[in-house]
Design goal:
Helix 3 packs across helix 4. The protein contains four helices and no strands. Among the domains are: 36 residues; 49 residues, no CATH class. By secondary structure, the protein is mainly alpha-helical. Helices cover 66% and strands 0% of the residues. InterPro entries: DNA-repair_Swi5. Belongs to the SWI5/SAE3 family. It comes from Cyprinodon variegatus.
Length: 131
């Protein structure tokens, strides 16, 4: 083998080693059997081109939305809805959801202790699954 062929062969080998290292650097889990895992990262967030809107147009749009919301509030107040009453309903819904979460947690623990499913406990205690 001539020295030129030897140098060329060594150059090809070193190029292959560099390429292998580059590909290996892109692998997040090198021993995975899934090919997609070894692909380059693609962000799930795609940057969409937004049309450029002038600040004046943006302010005008926000003022239109504000006026629309104020007119809807006035309409609801005419129908007899009060903010205080709605706040009470919201508070009661939060309390109900907290109590329901605790109840479901307890049913899950009882089911685990009895070695059964929560579905079976719902029927045992006369509860409806849809509630």
């Amino acid at each position: 083998m001539s020295t030129e062929q030897n140098v060329e062969r060594e150059s090809n080998v070193s190029t292959l080693e560099v390429n292998d290292r580059k590909e290996e650097a892109f692998k997040r889990t090198p021993f995975s059997k899934f090919k997609r895992v070894n692909s380059r990262f693609k962000s799930p967030l795609q940057v969409a081109e937004r049309p450029t809107v002038s600040p004046e147009e943006e302010v005008a749009e926000l003022q239109r939305k504000k006026e629309q919301l104020e007119s809807e509030i006035a309409r609801l107040e005419k129908e007899g809805y009060r903010v205080e009453e709605l706040d009470q309903h919201i508070d009661k819904l939060h309390e109900y959801n907290d109590i329901k979460d605790i109840g479901q947690s307890l049913l899950g623990r009882i089911a685990a202790l009895r070695g059964t499913t929560t579905r079976d406990l719902y029927t045992h205690f006369g509860l409806e699954l849809e509630d």
